[in-house]
Amino acid sequence: MSSTVISTTLVDAYFSCYNTSNPVLDEPDFRRSLGRDSGNSRRDPYFGVQYQLVLAIGHWIIGGDESFHASFYHAARAQLSLQCLESGSLSLVQALLLIGNFLQKRDRPNTGYNYIGLAGRIAVGLGLHRETHNDVTQDRGRVQLRRRVLWILFYIESGFALTTGRPCLIDDDAIETPLPANLDDEDVVKVERNKTEVGRPTVCSAMIVQSKLAIIANRLQRDLFASKTVNSEGAAHSIKALEEQLLDWRVQIPAYFYSADVPEWFRGPRAIVMWKEQNLRMIFWRACKRNPNAYLSGEEASRRSYRTALENIREIANFCHDYDDLLHQNICWYATYCSFQAALVLILGQLEERHTASTNTEGTSLPLATGLS
User: Which residues form the Xylanolytic transcriptional activator regulatory domain (predicted)?
Assistant: First the structure.
């Protein structure tokens, strides 16, 4: 195949399988920049970095030879230097965000974490975490993109923190920038000015609810994991508040997150978000076991964590069985990430039961796990 055909295939894979979950880039604008007569790529010094990363992620998604998507990554990295830290831009934040998330999924979490940290510092330096009147009166598409990039950065960094046990670097209380509107890229110019959103799945739908979930995850980190002074009364209050927030999240997400009648492209992003919610709920109950109190006993917290782990595994298995034609590397990565953690919770439950000689306790992991087979 010609290089043009290969490039088109990889760009298509990126936008159909990655950008639908994490809309870091504006697709129409990016494709215009690829046009032969467009001057955007010359005006934007980081477009070349973005382009190589789109190729790297697209190649990873279709399951190509690892050496090829590694070569795209190295080409992107070669275009960056320490000088880029002297004058930030939204385009640079996008590039660093893509590098960080790509490396996370290529089993280089520490390097990815560093790039995400750079993206976060530059984003805050640019003031993406707050909006002025001048920002809001700018081009509507530009405002939407700034919001998208900030909140994607927020929940990816939050996920890093939750996975590694590191402190959250971006506090949601410090973010004044609203969530983006539920609009596709083309909706921004087509939808009337006074209509803020559309009532159907868009490329922003999954990222909006994922951002709200990350706010809860950060509070879980702060109130249960990181706190050094949680007493029984304080733990009960925190646990009850977090449980209510998780329940509210499930109630408040749009109806199309539960509907069978959705576009095929949306099934993957929707499933990933729901798996993440189950994963967070499982971790939440597991954390509650370490903080027994009058509101929730350690035994009940264990039972809930086991049930949620099984729920997560079943949901993933059912999706992979029912929609095997929709599977690609990005979906499979999250399926593996969540099911592995769920399996660990069940295994730890078995070991803990044996250690405490409580294998006959009703509702513990052994009978639940038996029902999974």
Answer: 112-186
